[in-house]
């Protein structure tokens, strides 16, 4: 499996594309429909996120054609953007979980080593080789 992680450059590129996409749509609808910048921006965001409340609708034939094409182009782009952001979040969480597991395993090894040292009976004499290298010289 190809495991490519999301870099900050990916995140910035995706964010930049989304901003350009939204501002292009807002600019077009401001000019074509005569809406305020806020209304045009609002309509564009509702369109690319597929919310579409229906409170603003294109009224000219040109706007209807443009919004149809704009929706077909912008929807996949926005879905990919959301996927990139979600992948980045999941990768960060997985790294945090892997670090916690690694810390627990290391801690468990340390505890096992301490228990092993305690389990050696004080009455049992260990040879030089057992003490230094942990070797068992008796069979």
Which SSEs are present, and which pair or pack?
Layout: H1 8-33, H2 37-48, H3 61-119, H4 128-133
What structural class do you assign from the helix and strand content?
Answer: mainly alpha
Helix content: over 70%
Order of helices and strands: HHHH
Total helices: the number is: 4
Number of strands: 0
| Shape assignment | rod-shaped
Give the biggest beta sheet: none
CATH fold field value = Helix Hairpins
Report the sheet-strand fraction. Answer: under 5%
- Overall mean confidence score, pLDDT: 83
> Domains counted in the coordinates: how many?
1
Query: At the first level of CATH, what is the class?
Result: Mainly Alpha
Structure summary:
The chain has 139 residues and is an all-alpha fold. Helix content is 74%, strand content 0%. The protein has 4 helices and no strands.
């Amino acid at each position: 499996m190809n495991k490519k992680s999301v870099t900050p450059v990916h995140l910035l590129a995706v964010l930049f594309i989304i901003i350009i996409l939204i501002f292009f749509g807002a600019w077009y609808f401001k000019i074509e429909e005569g809406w305020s910048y806020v209304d045009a921006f609002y309509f564009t965001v509702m369109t690319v996120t597929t919310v579409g409340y229906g409170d603003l609708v294109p009224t000219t034939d040109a706007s209807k054609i443009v919004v149809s094409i704009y929706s077909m182009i912008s929807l996949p782009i926005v879905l990919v953007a959301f996927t990139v952001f979600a992948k980045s979040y999941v990768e960060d969480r997985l790294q945090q979980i892997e670090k916690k597991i690694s810390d627990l395993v290391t801690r468990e090894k340390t505890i096992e080593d301490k228990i092993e040292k305690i389990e050696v009976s004080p009455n049992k004499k260990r040879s030089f080789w057992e003490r230094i290298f942990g070797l068992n010289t008796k069979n």
